[in-house]
Amino acid sequence: MHMSDGLLNAPTSIAFLAVAAVGVGFALVKARADLDDRTAPMAGLVATFIFAVQMINFPILPGASGHLLGGALAAILVGPYVGALCVTIVLVVQALLFADGGLTAIGANVTNMALIGTATGFLVAVALRKLAERGKGGLATVAFISAFVNTVVAATGFIVEYAIGGAGGVEIGKVALLMWGLHALIGIGEGLITAVTVTSVASIRPDLVYLLKGNRKPLEVRS
Amino acid sequence: MKKFFIGFAVVSLLIAGVLSYFASGDPDGLDKTVEDTGIAEHAREHPFAGSTFADYALGGDGKFTGLAGVLGVLVVLALSFSLFWFLRKRSDV
């Protein structure tokens, strides 16, 4: 879902550069509270894993593919703020080192995949937390749903950006239909990858799953 | 604890270094959308399109996708680990 340069006009690109800067700045401030000697290495590995899995485009239709975005995956494992930073690092390395995703488009790309995707994935996962705490099947279901929604809503980010200042003046309904249709299919792949990853981590190291942190019962204090 | 982290890193290396050869070469959802609607005509070439590792290759040679993937994994790991380690709450103070 990496936009090239030129798909959005200059003012729109700059506006979303500002949106991304504010969002990433906010995440940088808030992330501190979620990072300690144990979760900081985990966060580095989550970013690394997302980079690796984003390389794997899977076929969805003849002539079209999709890849993981990783917002819900990161949010469930390391929280929304650290998660947004994980996806941002991946996008910056992709744009600078691998020429994947434009440079003026980096603001819109970060906004869609790192900010909107991660926030959406987290909100859905938190809304369904009770189900996630009910065991492996529940966690897998929550991971799948939040990842599916994260993909479709991140795709909606592009539709909105194109409506604001897209090049070529293509009818927005046409863009929306294609984006939503294709990303509903990609969302299934995103959901499956996220469910497998999150349940794998939870079965080995449940203490490293951010979403399940409230699950640990506090010590009872009798008075 | 160490074992889990090393295992996680090895899985990422294998995905980027080996599984990447089996990735679909078809356009992703956004690329397909902009191609089918003609928006793609307005896309500008990436300023670093001619750089060494552009498009996850080595000098444009897709045979080295795995190598580019491993390099990317190491770069993302180094950058993200450094950032998150720096940002963390210090427990030893």
From TrEMBL, chain B:
Keywords: Cell membrane, Membrane, Signal, Transmembrane, Transmembrane helix
Entry's localization field: Cell membrane
Origin species: Lentzea indica
Annotated TM spans: 64-87
One matching Pfam family: PDGLE
Primary location class: membrane
Signal peptide region: 1-23
Protein name in the entry: PDGLE domain-containing protein
Residue ranges constituting the PDGLE domain according to the UniProt record: 2-89
